[in-house]
Amino acid sequence: MAEAHWRLMACGAAAIALSGCASLPPACLPPQQAVLSADLAFGRNIGGRPGVSDAAFARFTAEEITPRFPDGLTVLDGHGQWHDPARGRLVREPSKLVWIVFADDPAKRTALTEIAEAYKQKFRQQSVMIALRPACVSF
Questions:
Q1: Which phi-psi region, left, alpha or beta, contains residue 88 (left: φ > 0; alpha: ψ -120 to 50)?
Q2: Residue 70, by phi and psi: left (phi above 0), alpha (psi -120 to 50) or beta?
Q3: What does pTM read for this prediction?
Q4: How far apart are CA 1 and CA 62, in angstroms?
Q5: How high is the pLDDT of residue 24?
Q6: Which stretches of the chain score pLDDT less than 50?
Q7: What is the dihedral of CA 15, 16, 20, 26, to 10 degrees?
Q8: Are strands 49-50 and 45-46 parallel, antiparallel or unpaired?
């Protein structure tokens, strides 16, 4: 009985300690607002060769990204690299980085996945990186 009590107390203490690992939204000071910041990385090679032109990416942005995030976004050029496990080598390729800041909303999170899926399908890509983090913004 005493052993079960100590085990229960140990589990409770562990749960309390681990709850500190949960991510809390930032405490934003006025006039800032709590939002999500999304970084999307789009590789531009197709079949190991340059394939997604600036014009093609601009069309993709206009057709797929802007309608889902009409309040604004930023597009940057990047130079990405990733490890291809199938070939066992490091792959470097030009990329486009899209930065979007938005109020947290399940529909907007779904829109990010839809954008990634549309890009993979349209340009025969294996993946699109999406990184989300809480942020405080003001304009």
A1: left
A2: alpha
A3: 0.79
A4: 66
A5: 61
A6: 1-20
A7: 110
A8: antiparallel
Neighbours of 93 (CB within 10 A): 18
First to last CA, the chain: 60
Domains and CATH numbers, the chain: 24-137 (3.30.70.120)
40-52 core/surface letters (b: 16 or more CB in 10 A; e: else): bbbbbbeeeeebb
How many whole angstroms separate alpha carbon 45 and alpha carbon 113?
A: 20
Give the contacts of 50 (CB within 8 A, at least 6 positions apart).
Answer: 44, 93, 94
- Report residue 109 as tokens: 């999170």
Residue 3's pLDDT is 47
Output the six-digit token pair for 118: 């549309």
